[in-house]
Amino acid sequence: MRALVISGGGSKGAFAGGVAQYLIENKGFDYDIFIGTSTGSLLVSHLALKKIDEIKKIYTSVTQDSIFSVCPFTIKRKKGIETIGINHFNVLRNILRGSKTFGESYGLKQLIKDNFSKKDFEELKKTGLEIVITVSNLSLNQVEYKSIHDFGYDEFCEWVWISCNYTPFMSLAKKDGCEYADGGLGSMVPIDEAIKRGATTVDAIVLQTETTTYNRMPSLNAFSLLTNMFAFMLDRIEGQNIRIGKFVATNQKAIINFYYTPVVLTTNALIFDKEKMKQWWQSGFNFAKFKDDGTSPLADMES
Fold first, then answer.
1. Distance of CA 144 to CAs 31, 59, 135, 150, Å?
2. Number of continuous H segments (helices) and E segments (strands) in the chain
3. Over the stretch 4-47, which tens digit does the pLDDT of each residue have?
4. Which of 287, 291, 283, 268 is closest to 214 using CA atoms?
5. How many Å apart are CA 291 and CA 267, to the nearest integer?
6. What is the mean pLDDT of residues 226-244?
7. Phi then psi for 104, rounded to 5 degrees?
8. How far apart are the C-alpha atoms of 287 and 89, rounded to whole Å?
């Protein structure tokens, strides 16, 4: 059995889409298992249906307004680097409304349902493919994996949305008496889960460079400090997931093919720039092609 695992990474999901497009369309890989975390969960259903043009269109046209119903930050450009500043009005208004988070992501929830129909859902279920979404249960302090075969359409779409909720900047969801947040808080690259479900070959798209190649910009405000802290923690979680995945693969005699980003795409994956994401999608496709035939993928990434 072959599995496609896509890590979390916000706007960098566009790169993962390009890699997956090459693997599915050009290499002709047929996957039995698709597992996504955060932005990866947005990709897997369309990839399983091979509706790649549709998901590419979404990833290359999305904006902040598409994601946030209440955006908690402003985007500033300093010394050529995009950073986030606090949108004091939106944050204060959200807190006064009784919200536990600085912003809300109900725009994303609607975007998911607008672009993944009930017909798509039923078609996907009939294929028998395993589509799995990673979420973090904050109340029980555990990672949970939600399979498409265990839920109806509305609930499955909700789990996809929950997997992407990068709290405290996005919505905190409450289901079955528990609080849930972004799957990446617990498992950024769930390779071991794919192997537990029977995968003997795993193609893992990791939306980070294989080694740390940069120093972060100094924190300019409370929000940039928070994003830097979360990025630090998620990098550690990602590294741990990969080590565990390699250990499990060795014991189960499974093969893992890694696809890391060869360069740093962005230091703030909460910024959704459709022009950059269009470029990243093509970069991902070119990079997968490079791994396959040795052509250089870097020219368009460095522009």
1. 22, 26, 5, 13
2. 11, 10
3. 999 999 999 999 999 999 999 999 999 999 999 999 999 999 99
4. 268
5. 24
6. 88
7. -135, 145
8. 42
Q: Which of 169, 166, 194 is nearest to 180 (CA)?
A: 166
Q: Which amino acid is at 125?
A: K
Token duo for residue 94: 């959200």
Query: Which of the residue ranges 158-167, 210-219, 224-233 has the most confident prediction, judged by mean pLDDT?
Result: 158-167
| pLDDT for res 17 | 97
Which pLDDT score is estimated for 302? Answer: 44
Q: How many CB atoms lie within 10 A of CB 163?
A: 27
Angle between helices 153-163 and 118-127 (to 10 degrees): 90
**Residues whose CB is less than 8 angstroms from the CB of residue 135 and which lie 6 or more positions away in sequence, other chains included:** 143, 144, 145, 146, 159, 162, 163, 180, 181, 182, 183
Judged by DSSP in three states, 137 sits in strand
Which pTM does this prediction carry? Answer: 0.91
| Assigned token pair, 283 | 């970069």
Amino acid letter at 129?
A: L
